[in-house]
Structure formats: structure tokens, C-alpha cells
Amino acid sequence: MPSPIEILSKLHTTVVDAVKGYDEAADIAKRDQVGALCTDLKRTHMTHAHDIAGLLLARGERPDADGSYMSLVHKFVLNARFLVTADEESLLPGLRDGEKRLLEAYDDTLRETEIGGDAFKPAEVKAVKTQRNGVLANIGKIDALMATPA
Length: 150
Description:
By secondary structure, the chain is mainly alpha-helical. Helices cover about 80% and strands about 0% of the residues. α1 (about 5-30) packs antiparallel against α2, α2 packs antiparallel against α5 (about 120-145) and α4 packs antiparallel against α5.
């Protein structure tokens, strides 16, 4: 079974990757609601990454702020999608997919906290649950924009 540090580090890397992806999306979608949404998502996940980093530091682990190769993949996909359509609205399904992947990462982390039981501190579990709820709210924001006629 992975240790709490390994589990939290994996979640941290996933969130850092999301921040980098939203940074790229914010550069692409500079106007209107999509650009504001990208900036909001980036800010939210920066806060989440910072909070998880704090949990890791409290366990004596130095968090990796670089993310993984997936941030490069997300960047490529966003740029390719935008180049094909030249429409900021076309970014919304990709943003939604990104939030769904984050939701899965939070769900995986929460399953590990249940399996690990006492190995996880109550504050860690609470932080993960709170951040997961934030991801659900982000999906709702994206869905609302997708439902709004252009």
C-alpha cells in the first residue's frame, strides 16, 4: 500500500499539472467568460496545490512544484483544439474533461485515505474532501457556460 506521502504527492502532482494547463488555457482564452473561467480555475487549483504542499511539508516531505509530463500533453491538446476551431468556446469540453480527471484523482485519494485509516490525519482527509467539492463546483460552472447559447 502506498504511504500517505506518496498518495498526497501524487494528488499534488495532478493538481500542479492542472494549474499549468489552466495557465495555458488562460493565455489562449483571453476574453469574455471563458478567459475569466480559466483564470478562476487556475487560481482555485493554485490554492489547492499550495494547501496540499502544506500537508506534505507537515509530514516532512518537500513537494515537487514541477508537475509531470502530462502538463505538456494538456498544453498540446488545448493549443491543437484552439488552432482547429479558433473558438474559445471549443475549450470548454477540454476544461470539463480536465476537471473530471481531477475529480477522479480526488476520489482515488479519498479511497486511499479510507484504506489507510489512521495513517492519514483528519486535517488531510478534510482538505481533500473540501477540494473535491471545489472541483464539483468547477464542473458546474463549466456546464453552465456550455449550456449558455453563444
